[in-house]
């Protein structure tokens, strides 16, 4: 296993931030993963596992070991109590690109993750964030998570319930943050049609373009069209997609805000009301604004971009300014979805 020193991470994060890692290596097999745990560079340094770098902001150099998760493989499992006529279990390794897993599923006519098409990142990051989009989230289909405890090298399988999944949240982002490496996940997908097009942006797009939904792939294609029209390509301009989580508020707060902003968009979800963070940011005057090398995207206020040459501290500073202005205007605090390192 090769250990590189003083490695520039600019090509390994979608913000394109130049930050240096003291050490860097990659694991492409379970055998290499086992070897990793024996290395002095692993034992003696702080460490971070990195997938595609699509949900991370390096605010400074990393004085430790960065491990690239390159574990690949997607397969249909035969085991499972409810597998057969109605459901299928699919296991994917943590280093797989998430969208490749979506394509694997929809090409075979399976239902459950088509609304999560084109979400950037790897499979291993999906349960950490409990990724979600267009009225669906990973929690709806997750069966279990295979992991390795970083301190001991012991293997553990987490059930969905043990993952404590919440809105863009999980046990891996809280109580067990940096404690486990996710090596694989198993999803339970439906063989029968389970169409989910209730999310307004999605339903409006389908209606406007007269799209016939006959397969899960039709929804996947529609979601891809929407995402490509709204979100910038990190290969063109550095970004990590949605920088902030949407905001959930109590009914009393919603009534108060609607009395002032009657056209404010909001959505009911799990007994709470969700206000789009992008709307709050736009109303605070940030959409399309640029400060030096960083700015807010002109089409989607939820996206902070690196116009070129920015460092992580500049992006962090802009994010903090946005948080402060939204708090001052609305009395609501934005929480970053991106992991700050």
UniProtKB/TrEMBL annotation:
Pathway: Cell wall biogenesis; peptidoglycan biosynthesis. Residues 16-192 form the FAD-binding PCMH-type domain. Keywords: Cell cycle, Cell division, Cell shape, Cell wall biogenesis/degradation, Cytoplasm, FAD, Flavoprotein, NADP, Oxidoreductase, Peptidoglycan synthesis. Its cofactor is FAD. Its EC number is 1.3.1.98. It catalyses: UDP-N-acetyl-alpha-D-muramate + NADP(+) = UDP-N-acetyl-3-O-(1-carboxyvinyl)-alpha-D-glucosamine + NADPH + H(+). One of its GO terms (cellular component) is cytosol. It is found in: Cytoplasm. Cell wall formation. PANTHER family: UDP-N-ACETYLENOLPYRUVOYLGLUCOSAMINE REDUCTASE. NCBIfam families: murB, PRK00046.1. This is UDP-N-acetylenolpyruvoylglucosamine reductase.
